[in-house]
C-alpha cells in the first residue's frame, strides 16, 4: 500500500498535522496514488481521528523507540525541518518533502531546507503552501544524499547555522 509517513520528531507542530490531514491535502495525496497516511505527532495537541481523512487509511502515534522502519516502508516522507529527521529520511533514501515551521524565531530550519533543496536532496514548503506542493511536486528531480558521511552533514549544518 503506497504510504506517506509524516514526522514532527519530538516537537509540537500541530499546524503540519492539521494541514496534511485536511480534505484538500488528502485528496492531493490520493490523486498521486497514496492510500495510507502514517502520522507521528510528537508532543502535539491535535490528534486527528480516522474520520477526518476518509480518502486515506490514517494511522497516528506520538513516539516510538525508532521510526526507522516507518521511514523504510514509506514511499514519501513529509517531515518538519529538524536536522535529525532530515538526516534520517535522507539516509533511508526516501523522497523527502520538508515543511518548514515559519512561526519559529531565528528560523535555521529554513536555511537547512533551502540548502538541501538547492542540492536537489529534498523539496520544501510551508504549511500554507503544502497542499499546492503536493499537487505539483516532481519527486523525480531529487538526488540521493551521499550515504555514510555524517561528518559532511555536520560540517554542512555548522555552515548553515553560521558556526564556520
From TrEMBL:
<keyword id="KW-0328">Glycosyltransferase</keyword>
<dbReference type="GO" id="GO:0005783">
    <property type="term" value="C:endoplasmic reticulum"/>
</dbReference>
<protein>
    <recommendedName>
        <fullName>UDP-N-acetylglucosamine transferase subunit ALG13</fullName>
        <ecNumber>2.4.1.141</ecNumber>
    </recommendedName>
</protein>
<dbReference type="Pfam" id="PF04101">
    <property type="entry name" value="Glyco_tran_28_C"/>
</dbReference>
<dbReference type="InterPro" id="IPR039042">
    <property type="entry name" value="Alg13-like"/>
</dbReference>
<comment type="similarity">
    <text>Belongs to the glycosyltransferase 28 family.</text>
</comment>
<dbReference type="InterPro" id="IPR007235">
    <property type="entry name" value="Glyco_trans_28_C"/>
</dbReference>
<feature type="domain" description="Glycosyl transferase family 28 C-terminal">
    <location>
        <begin position="3"/>
        <end position="147"/>
    </location>
</feature>
<dbReference type="GO" id="GO:0004577">
    <property type="term" value="F:N-acetylglucosaminyldiphosphodolichol N-acetylglucosaminyltransferase activity"/>
</dbReference>
<keyword id="KW-0808">Transferase</keyword>
<keyword id="KW-0256">Endoplasmic reticulum</keyword>
<dbReference type="GO" id="GO:0006488">
    <property type="term" value="P:dolichol-linked oligosaccharide biosynthetic process"/>
</dbReference>
Amino acid at each position: 500500500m503506497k504510504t506517506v509517513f509524516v514526522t514532527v520528531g519530538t516537537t509540537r507542530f500541530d499546524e503540519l498535522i492539521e494541514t496534511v490531514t485536511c480534505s484538500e491535502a488528502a485528496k492531493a495525496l490520493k490523486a498521486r496514488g497514496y492510500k495510507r497516511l502514517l502520522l507521528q505527532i510528537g508532543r502535539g495537541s491535535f490528534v486527528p481521528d480516522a474520520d477526518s481523512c476518509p480518502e486515506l487509511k490514517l494511522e497516528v502515534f506520538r513516539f516510538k523507540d525508532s521510526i526507522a522502519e516507518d521511514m523504510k516502508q514509506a514511499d514519501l516522507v513529509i517531515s518538519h525541518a529538524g536536522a535529525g529527521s532530515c538526516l534520517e529520511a535522507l539516509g533511508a533514501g526516501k523522497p523527502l518533502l520538508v515543511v518548514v515551521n515559519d512561526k519559529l524565531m531565528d528560523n535555521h530550519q529554513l536555511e537547512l531546507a533551502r540548502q538541501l533543496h538547492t542540492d536537489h536532496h529534498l523539496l520544501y514548503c510551508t504549511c500554507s503552501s503544502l497542499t499546492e506542493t503536493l499537487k505539483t511536486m516532481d519527486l523525480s528531480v531529487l538526488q540521493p544524499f551521499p550515504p555514510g558521511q555524517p561528518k559532511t552533514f555536520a560540517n554542512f549544518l555548522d555552515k548553515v547555522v553560521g558556526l564556520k
